[in-house]
Design brief:
The chain folds into two domains: 19-187, Rossmann fold (3-Layer(aba) Sandwich), CATH 3.40.50.720; 223-318, N-(1-d-carboxylethyl)-l-norvaline Dehydrogenase, domain 2, CATH 1.10.1040.10. Helices cover 48% and strands 12% of the residues. The protein is built from 15 helices and eight strands. It has helices at 19-23, 38-49, 65-69, 78-84, 98-103, 107-110, 124-136, 166-171, 173-176, 191-219, 224-253, 263-266, 271-278, 287-301, 310-313, and strands spanning 30-34, 53-57, 73-74, 87-90, 115-118, 140-147, 159-164, 181-184. The protein has an eight-stranded mixed β-sheet, with helices on both faces. It is elongated and about 65 Å long. It binds NADP nicotinamide-adenine-dinucleotide phosphate. The site of NADP nicotinamide-adenine-dinucleotide phosphate (NAP) has 21 residues, from helix 2. NADP nicotinamide-adenine-dinucleotide phosphate (NAP) binds at residues 35-40, 58-60, 63, 91-94, 97, 101, 120-121, 146, 149-150.
Length: 320
């Protein structure tokens, strides 16, 4: 699946093939997994289940034992793992450690002709720099952002964002579609981490909102589980579906004309802050957004929507 989320594409792509249907009919390939932490182990397990020839390497060798029992081949070094397979999947903790690992003890020479798929979390700039190094060594590079936790790997909700060499992506689909739905974003290797980090930003905003809401409920001795299931989740779903597409269109157009709830109305009275303080709940999470909303009103945009706060984070004139 390919997605164009460049600034002039507002349609997006919401197709949601199940992993099972994506895997069906895909060719078996050889794949090496370097890094067998929680995520790397989940990826290797799904690859074995899909019938691929899987070679594994981990810095702490004993973590490979369970996978070897399930049929994986053990590599004695990163170079041996790279030499063993067409596709080399790297999943370690820090992006900064990936390049040295791919250069150590003969690994660089083994890379020629390989497809390196690095799903270690990093930044767009790190992805572009690594893509250059890998291609200098004669390999093709794909950067990946895993949008799942280990338990969800192989399940229909899991997807992975990819960017980089398009031909390599197409040739590696048999492997990639084995553990999650594959979403290709474009040839710039920085696109996957950019989108990944933006999605995580949205997630942490939601988690922050949840934490403040839960603190308010607990401070009144209310059951947070029932509150979350019965009212918070329906409310957040409705807000996401009703508000986010309209706000996104406003950001793209720069027209923050209000459609129901103007910003001045929203900051007319600090009800959330007052109630929180009265109940002994810290407003540390809520304060930064509240201050930005007030500043936007003070700047003369009270009759616009909350979407205009984005102009305080990244003014439109700064667009690339
Ligand atoms: N877990 C998630 O929910 C999740 C979701 C999306 C993306 N990710 C990304 O997936 C990557 C791995 O996450 P994880 O959950 O698997 O982490 P983890 O369980 O902490 O495992 C970290 C892995 O990195 C290896 N490692 C660390 N430093 C290394 C080095 N200098 N050289 C070689 N290997 C090294 C570790 O080897 P040792 O066993 O020898 O320590 C281990 O295999 C991260 O970039 C993370 O952001 C994780």
């Amino acid at each position: 699946m390919a997605v164009d989320n460049s600034a002039d594409n507002s349609a997006g792509n919401s197709a949601a093939n199940s992993v099972e249907s994506a895997v069906r009919g895909t060719a078996r390939q050889s794949v090496s997994v370097i890094g067998l932490g929680d995520m790397g182990t989940a990826l290797a397990t799904a690859l074995l289940a899909a019938g691929h020839q899987v070679t594994v390497w981990n810095r702490t060798a004993r973590k490979a034992d369970g996978l070897v029992e399930k049929g994986a081949r053990r590599a004695e070094s990163p170079a041996a793992a790279i030499a063993a397979s067409e596709v080399v999947l790297v999943c370690i903790l820090d992006y900064a450690d990936v390049a040295p690992l791919l250069a150590a003890d003969g690994a660089g020479a083994a890379l020629k002709g390989r497809v390196v798929v690095n799903v270690t979390n990093g930044s767009p700039a790190e992805a572009r720099a690594l893509a250059d190094r890998v291609s200098d060594l004669g390999a093709e590079y794909l950067d990946g952002g895993i949008m799942a936790v280990p338990d969800l790997i192989g399940k229909p909700s899991a997807f992975v964002l990819y960017s980089g060499a398009k031909d390599a992506f197409e040739r590696s689909r048999g492997v990639l579609d084995s553990f999650a739905r594959s979403v290709y974003l474009g040839t710039d290797p920085g696109l996957a981490p950019l989108n990944d980090l933006a999605l995580l930003s949205g997630m942490y905003g939601m988690f922050g909102g949840f934490l403040h809401a839960a603190a308010l409920m607990r401070s009144a001795d209310r059951n947070v589980t029932a509150f979350t299931r019965e009212v918070l989740m329906p409310w957040l779903r409705a807000m996401a579906e009703n508000q986010l597409p309209a706000m996104a269109a406003q950001v793209d157009s720069g027209d923050y004309g209000v459609t129901g709830s103007n910003l001045a109305m929203q900051v007319s009275h600090d009800a959330i802050g007052d109630a929180s303080r009265a109940q002994g709940v810290s407003t540390e999470l809520f304060d930064p957004l509240w201050e930005l909303m007030k500043r936007r009103v003070a700047d003369g945009h009270g009759q616009e929507s909350i979407g205009g706060v984005l102009e305080l984070l990244h003014p439109r004139e700064r667009r690339a």
